[in-house]
UniProtKB/TrEMBL annotation:
<keyword id="KW-0560">Oxidoreductase</keyword>
<dbReference type="InterPro" id="IPR029036">
    <property type="entry name" value="P5CR_dimer"/>
</dbReference>
<dbReference type="InterPro" id="IPR036291">
    <property type="entry name" value="NAD(P)-bd_dom_sf"/>
</dbReference>
<dbReference type="InterPro" id="IPR000304">
    <property type="entry name" value="Pyrroline-COOH_reductase"/>
</dbReference>
<feature type="binding site">
    <location>
        <begin position="16"/>
        <end position="21"/>
    </location>
    <ligand>
        <name>NADP(+)</name>
    </ligand>
</feature>
<keyword id="KW-0963">Cytoplasm</keyword>
<dbReference type="Pfam" id="PF03807">
    <property type="entry name" value="F420_oxidored"/>
</dbReference>
<dbReference type="InterPro" id="IPR028939">
    <property type="entry name" value="P5C_Rdtase_cat_N"/>
</dbReference>
<feature type="domain" description="Pyrroline-5-carboxylate reductase catalytic N-terminal">
    <location>
        <begin position="12"/>
        <end position="74"/>
    </location>
</feature>
<keyword id="KW-0028">Amino-acid biosynthesis</keyword>
<dbReference type="InterPro" id="IPR053790">
    <property type="entry name" value="P5CR-like_CS"/>
</dbReference>
<dbReference type="InterPro" id="IPR008927">
    <property type="entry name" value="6-PGluconate_DH-like_C_sf"/>
</dbReference>
<dbReference type="Pfam" id="PF14748">
    <property type="entry name" value="P5CR_dimer"/>
</dbReference>
<dbReference type="GO" id="GO:0005737">
    <property type="term" value="C:cytoplasm"/>
</dbReference>
<keyword id="KW-0641">Proline biosynthesis</keyword>
<protein>
    <recommendedName>
        <fullName>Pyrroline-5-carboxylate reductase</fullName>
        <ecNumber>1.5.1.2</ecNumber>
    </recommendedName>
</protein>
<feature type="binding site">
    <location>
        <position position="44"/>
    </location>
    <ligand>
        <name>NADP(+)</name>
    </ligand>
</feature>
Amino acid sequence: MDIVPIPADTYKLGFIGAGKMAESIARGAVRSGVIPASRIFTASHSNSSRGDAFQSFGVSLLSSNDDVLKDVVLKLNPLLTKNKLLVSVAAGVKLHDLQEWAGHNRFIRVMPNTPAAVGEAASVMSLGGAATEEDANLIAKLFGSIGKIWKADEKYFDAVTGLSGSGPAYIYLAIEALADGGVAAGLPRDLALKLASQTVLGAASMVTGTGKHPGQLKDDVTSPAGTTISGVHELEKGGFRGTLMNAVVAAAKRSRELA
């Protein structure tokens, strides 16, 4: 899909806080060409390396979050000057609380994940009471440029946080473990890591690209008495699927607690 840039003379993008998620979104947006770095702003951070990370790809660093609000929110185009469109990516913070804090309900809550930095985010958005379809389309364009985005009722957001929000960490652990297994089986470390990461990427692409259920794809490569079924048997004995399910549920529970 071709990426349609957000008109550079119409919008500015400001981040309250120079955290990792903000960096991933900003870096992905710049990399995709959806908005130039010169139109993106964030505030300085207690950790100076966070500011350095943003400045390394051209984002302007302001002295405080108040300055971000003044430079971005208060200078939006005429369509948004009176009722600013605000977007939150904070885990566990509900639209009701955000709207109460902001004094209006033109809010969109988005739960992205860190693969935004390489254009492969999985994001979900939910609209506040006064957010329009035009607002939704704008945010879909922004987050669609750094991955895929879906719209869902906010009641699902704790589960979304537990699955896609926290999920990259689970997959990083799996890649590391696969590579360690390769080393244990005799592979050089660098080759094992490359094979492990490409295998995970390829398997995910098979699910999204073929439309087949992952169980069917698994069955396709598990021949009778073969190598793969031997490995799958070990995973089942170790509770692999149950452990991943528990991880998602635990992260979702923590998201509810943060609310």
